[in-house]
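Run log // design_07
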């Protein structure tokens, strides 16, 4: 019997991605194709990225950029997130103080950050497939890179990287010219 290999999650196993915080994400085009060089496609991606705060409460966008085959962005989750599945996994004492946390649920898609990314990918893919007169084609790679920004120094460094990334495209490891 043939079985598919298990995909290893790249997320922190004990972390609740609905927590207030600052998250740096990178999303790649399917097979890292240079799809986003087309201004019409780039405009659709930008529109859906800017719609994220309209689709999700307590979300702010910081610096972001659409590159020829990927997108870098900083997403800020502010305030309490009541949909967080982790809340029900905390055991409380009589004074409502957390005394220990149970492992997070297997289905991380219920967490806010993966929901944000999933909805963005779905909506942008749908519109771009219509634009390109194709149906059901994948626009984005299945997963995405994420980094939890923990301090101002890290935030400043990532902001600078995003700002300078277009000017460094010739040296970028995501540029097919640099693949060996």
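design_07 sequence
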């Amino acid at each position: 019997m043939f079985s598919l290999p298990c995909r290893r999650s790249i997320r922190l196993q004990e972390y609740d991605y609905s927590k207030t915080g600052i998250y740096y994400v990178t999303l790649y085009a399917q097979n890292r194709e240079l799809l986003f060089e087309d201004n019409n496609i780039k405009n659709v991606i930008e529109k859906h990225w800017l719609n994220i705060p309209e689709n999700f409460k307590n979300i702010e966008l910081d610096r972001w950029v659409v590159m020829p085959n990927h997108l870098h962005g900083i997403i800020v989750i502010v305030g309490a997130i009541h949909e967080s599945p982790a809340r029900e996994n905390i055991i409380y004492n009589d004074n409502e103080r957390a005394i220990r946390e149970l492992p997070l649920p297997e289905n991380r898609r219920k967490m806010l950050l993966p929901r944000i990314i999933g909805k963005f990918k779905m909506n942008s893919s749908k519109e771009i497939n219509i634009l390109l007169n194709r149906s059901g084609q994948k626009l984005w790679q299945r997963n995405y890179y994420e980094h939890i920004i923990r301090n101002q120094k890290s935030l400043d460094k990532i902001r600078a990287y995003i700002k300078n990334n277009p000017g460094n495209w010739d040296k970028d490891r995501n540029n097919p010219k640099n693949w060996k």
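The chain has four helices and six strands.
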